[in-house]
Design a protein that fits this description.
Elements (H helix, E strand, L loop, with lengths): L19 E5 L2 E4 L4 E4 L2 H4 L8 H11 L12 H12 L5 E5 L2 H18 L7 E5 L8 H7 L2 H4 L9 E4 L4 H7 L4 E6 L2 E2 L5 E2 L2 H14 L2 E6 L22 E4 L10 E5 L20 H14 L4 H22 L4 E7 L2 E6 L7 H10 L2 E2 L1 E3 L3 E4 L7 H22 L3
Parallel strand pairs: 3-15, 5-6, 5-7, 7-10, 10-11
Antiparallel strand pairs: 1-2, 2-3, 4-12, 8-9, 11-12, 13-14, 14-17, 16-17
The structure holds pyridoxal-5'-phosphate.
The site of pyridoxal-5'-phosphate has 15 residues, from helix 4.
């Protein structure tokens, strides 16, 4: 927004005073022609960076062929994308959506309907954890139970029992004969890059099996190769009953999906759930093009290698600047560094200074700064990011160290 004219956009975002004109690979250029290294990636959405030639070509070709028909007809590109998403995963079937929250809503409905169809309509509640973020719909704000997002929006949607993260006793205590499912992000994103470790994930699977519940995961942010495996839960070796995903799957084109086992989806039948735009030929063509890259030989190895390198360098950075940063967390290219609140370092101020120095990063809960680069980054991008982080941390001293 420039000049004195009032913005006609609804007042829901405190937007930075910066607009981007174009992007290429891991870089963005603003309207003044300034270049930024993009470790924001539209909040883990631009998985292949900007203007990836394969995506540009796919969009151009599909745009000239067919955009939309609705799910009343066969959509071959969607059949193909679903086949590819289920081929190497726990899942048997896919429902395509337009966004993360739409996938989350559908997955919540799927879990409730599963028990209804089994003759247990009393099982409809879902155990969730503190610090979660599942989207902005009425049901998903109730599920995550963040007071900031719930207040003023009427009585919270019923059916969610929110327990402390990582506490199996509290979680097991919350399970009643009305419980249908356990819902968790394998790594909390908005909550501050907080991973559910392998032991916790296994304990959740065991509890779900013991009580006949579905284990449903929110992989909207952590999925699609972000952690160096196609799905973040794969690191723990457990198999969920369903996952919701979105962000990285379309590389910037709005796509979401519910992946489920045949069993978890057994309550669904024609007419019970739907979407007008979800799974349209445009979106499906782009999803397939993203998978062409993500599933290529060696791609995930490269993400893992770059993730390990980034982590090493961040750990060295944090060790060198303990008054500015206190901790590195995360997996693959879903990394977070915690800013030192005791020294008055806030992630918001850090983000601003990094941006002024040419590096885009994302804030998160718990005073954590998220680093979510495109999955195509190379070592020189990491070196460039670390150099900017180093210089901003070194120049913080005057205020943070009181030196
Ligand atoms: C972003 C996000 C959502 C919501 O996705 P939208 O596409 O913004 O609706 C849900 N869950 C998690 C973990 C997310 O990161």
């Amino acid at each position: 927004m420039s000049g004195d004219q009032k913005s006609a956009l609804m007042n829901t975002y405190a937007r930075a005073d910066i607009g981007f004109e174009r992007g290429e690979g891991c870089y963005l250029w603003d309207t003044e022609g300034r270049r930024y290294l993009d470790f924001f990636a539209g909040i883990a959405v631009n998985s292949l960076g900007h203007s990836h030639p394969h995506l540009v070509k796919t969009v151009q070709e599909q745009a000239a062929k067919l955009w939309h028909v609705t799910n009343v007809f066969q959509i071959p590109e969607g059949e193909r994308l679903a086949q590819r998403l289920t081929a190497d995963s726990f899942a048997d079937v896919v429902f395509f959506t337009n966004s993360g929250v739409e996938a989350m809503e559908g997955m919540i409905k799927l879990a409730r309907r599963y028990h209804f169809a089994k003759g247990n309509p009393e099982k409809w509640r879902i155990v969730t954890v503190e610090g979660a973020f599942h989207g902005r719909s009425l049901a998903t704000i109730a599920a995550a139970n963040n007071p900031k997002y719930v207040e003023g929006f009427g009585p919270a949607v019923d059916g969610f029992d929110n327990v402390p993260f990582g506490n199996m006793n509290a979680l097991r205590d919350a399970i009643t004969p009305e419980t249908a499912a356990i819902l968790i992000e394998p790594i909390q994103g908005e909550g501050g890059i907080r991973p559910a470790d392998t032991e916790y994930m296994r304990a959740l699977r065991t509890a779900a099996d013991e009580f006949g519940l579905l284990l449903i995961l929110d992989e909207v942010q952590a999925g699609n190769g972000r952690t160096g495996k196609m799905w973040a839960h794969e690191w723990s070796g457990i198999k969920p009953d369903a996952i919701a995903t979105a962000k990285g799957l379309g590389g910037g084109f709005p796509i979401g999906a519910i992946l489920a086992t045949d069993e978890a989806a057994s309550g669904m039948a024609p007419g019970l759930h739907g979407t007008t735009f979800g799974g349209n030929p445009m979106a499906m063509a782009v999803g397939n093009a993203v998978l062409d890259i993500l599933l290529a030989d060696g791609f995930m190895d490269q993400v893992q290698a770059m993730g390990a390198l980034l982590k090493d360098k961040l750990e060295a950075l944090v060790a060198a600047h303990p008054t500015v940063f206190t901790e590195v967390r995360g997996s693959g290219l879903m990394m977070g560094i915690k800013c030192n609140a005791d020294e008055g370092v806030t992630n918001v101020e850090m983000m601003t200074r990094l941006r002024d120095a040419g590096l885009l990063t994302v804030g998160a809960g718990a005073n954590v700064l998220r680093l979510l680069p495109p999955l195509i980054i190379e070592e020189h991008h990491i070196d460039e990011a670390i150099a900017i982080l180093e210089s901003v941390a070194a120049n913080w001293k005057g205020e943070a160290n009181g030196a």
